[in-house]
């Protein structure tokens, strides 16, 4: 597929490079779904490099998210966090911000870093409020509840602080 795109006479090199970024991205997603995580990493790394070199802002966020997702599936949570936090300042949409913070929060929780997990869960929830997207809001709310529940289970935050007072 890559050879076909490279051989195709596009009007400008930029269009061809953008198409190649998306081809590598799709190949990475397909490899990830098939469980070929090393191949997925390789494809997403190629897409990331091309997106950065070409300045494709919209493609870059997608590539970073996908690359972090591969690291998450590999159990390399810190690498996933590093990739996502590198791109997070460049994410402009509330939906994107919510999704990135959601993913970061989950990885922090898996690393038993509950404070960071709760912080990013809160940021995901705030961004989901701004997005107006009900599905994103549901995911962010559930994650935030799980984060708070983790604090209660491990006695990090006393239950009395969170529990509503009924008089």
**Level-2 CATH architecture of the largest domain:** Alpha Horseshoe
Beta-strand content estimate: under 5%
Based on CA inertia axes, which overall geometry fits? globular
Low-confidence stretches: 152-167
SSE succession: HHHHHHHHH
The number of helical runs is 9
State the helicity in percent bands.
Answer: over 70%
Largest sheet: none
- Structural class, by secondary structure, is mainly alpha
Count of beta strands = 0
For the record, the CATH class of the largest domain is: Mainly Alpha
Q: How many separate structural domains? A: 2
Q: Distance between the terminal alpha carbons, to the nearest Å?
A: 67 Å
Q: Tell me the radius of gyration.
A: 19 Å
CATH topology descriptor of the largest domain: Serine Threonine Protein Phosphatase 5, Tetratricopeptide repeat
Could you report the average pLDDT, rounded to the nearest whole number? 81
Description:
It is globular, with a radius of gyration of 19 Å. It is mostly helical. It has two domains: 80 residues, Serine Threonine Protein Phosphatase 5, Tetratricopeptide repeat (Alpha Horseshoe); 64 residues. It is built from nine helices and no strands.
Features:
single chain, 167 residues, mainly alpha, Serine Threonine Protein Phosphatase 5, Tetratricopeptide repeat, 2 domains, 9 helices, 80% helix, globular, disordered C terminus
Task: Indicate the topology.
Elements (H helix, E strand, L loop, with lengths): L1 H6 L5 H21 L3 H18 L2 H18 L2 H11 L6 H17 L3 H18 L2 H20 L5 H4 L5
Give a brief outline of the structure.
Helix content is 80%, strand content 0%. With 167 residues, the protein is mostly helical. The protein is globular, with a radius of gyration of 19 Å.
């Amino acid at each position: 597929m890559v050879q076909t795109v490279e051989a195709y006479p596009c009007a400008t090199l930029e269009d061809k490079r953008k198409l190649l970024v998306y081809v590598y991205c799709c190949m990475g997603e397909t490899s990830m779904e098939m469980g070929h995580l090393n191949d997925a990493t390789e494809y997403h790394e190629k897409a990331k490099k091309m997106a950065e070199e070409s300045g494709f802002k919209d493609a870059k966020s997608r590539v970073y998210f996908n690359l972090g997702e591969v690291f998450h599936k590999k159990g390399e949570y810190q690498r996933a966090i590093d990739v996502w936090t590198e791109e997070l300042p460049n994410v402009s949409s509330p939906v994107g911000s919510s999704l990135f913070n959601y993913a970061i929060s989950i990885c922090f929780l898996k690393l038993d870093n509950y404070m960071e997990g709760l912080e990013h869960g809160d940021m995901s929830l705030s961004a989901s409020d701004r997005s107006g997207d009900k599905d994103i809001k549901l995911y962010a709310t559930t994650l935030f509840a799980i984060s708070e529940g983790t604090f209660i289970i491990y006695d990090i935050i006393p239950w009395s602080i969170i529990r509503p007072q009924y008089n």
